[in-house]
Amino acid sequence: MTSQTDQTPADACCAEFAAVSRRGLFSGAIALAGATTFVGSAAITTSASSAAPAPSVLVVVSLRGAADGLSLVVPHADPAYHQARPGIAVPTDRLLARDGMFGLHPELAPLLPLWTNGTLAAVHATGLPAPNRSHFAAMEAVEDADPGSAARSGWLNRLIGTTAGSSPLQGFNLAGGVTPTSLFGRSATMSAGKVDDVRLPGEGDDDQGRRRRSLRTMWDHDRSVLARGMRATYAAVDEFGPAKQAVDNTASYPATDLGKALAQVARAIRGNVGIEAVTVDQGDWDMHSGMGTADRGWMVDNTRELAGAIAAFFGDLGDQAGKVTLVTISEFGRRVVENASQGLDHGYGNVMFVAGAGVRGGQYYGTWPGLGKTDDADLLVTTDYRSVLAEIVSKRFGASTATVFPRFSPETVGVMTSL
């Protein structure tokens, strides 16, 4: 974030989310200086590395803190919207891409070219199958996407486990910090703050190959599972070379956490090293008070950052743009009715944006349930978020939705085309 840092009230977000705010664990690209690590069981479960250009790439942007979907995509024709938000509602005449029910927040203007050319869509009233207003628990549930299972496995990890290849490069966390639950599991994944940090621990510019030679001496003739994982690790680092050679276009992005992070994602994708799934975070959406108006404030700043970074990202993909799909997701939405502090408390339903390859864009999807006007009114969920993700998984990757989302029968959303 650039302008909100010193304006947000100290008590604007809830105590639970304070630990994972912009300055905390899940904070965009804050940890840009972090070294590459392999997390969980990653480095000990891959028998060989065989990176190859991926036919499809999925970028998941997590809006940490529970973004207000009713501000991002405004249901202007629902009479309860303006009645419930006398101080923070976005005026109908300010909305973009307005149809008979919905319109985009005015700060999403950088994304209008994607909307008009049919590569950006919104799915409203999405979310978990049951309300969950704890940030930590909801994040875990969304990213695990397998309710009731005791297995430590995220849906993106299950996805890359269904595709050809066995390289840690297939699943990549480029948000810095701890790899999210969605990428945790049996398949090897990678994590780094930026492209140039992908290296073996202890391997510096003046190393002259000594670290690599010592590792090979130690592991090359070992037949253990750990040794196979180590060999996969340094093979993946070697295969990542073309990404490091790709031009770094960070200067053409907004100078924000998300802009810096997506610049690294685009660079890695342009390297064409076999990446299939990438995660990145935008934090600081927990707006319990002082969220601002349609003209200025916290919501305006966050929305501007989101739109500017995504627009720059798609402009930076070059000849790889035809295989990249991006989806946004947040752990839950916010209440319909604004509170006494001109903010919004934890709610339920939300909106998801889907952009890029394979998207039937330029329109709004989902079944609108209507809004309530009581103080505890929520936007109800009419589309399980997994149905949106399942459509991406099946249409873009040809993967089994039963494998990626066990015990779930997705409904047709219609937002994606086939490969």
UniProtKB/TrEMBL annotation:
InterPro entries in the cross-refs: DUF1501, TAT_signal
Coiled-coil annotated spans: none
A Pfam family that the UniProt record links to this protein: DUF1501
Signal sequence interval, chain numbering: none
Highest rank taxon of the organism: Bacteria
Protein name per UniProt: DUF1501 domain-containing protein
Organism: Nocardioides endophyticus
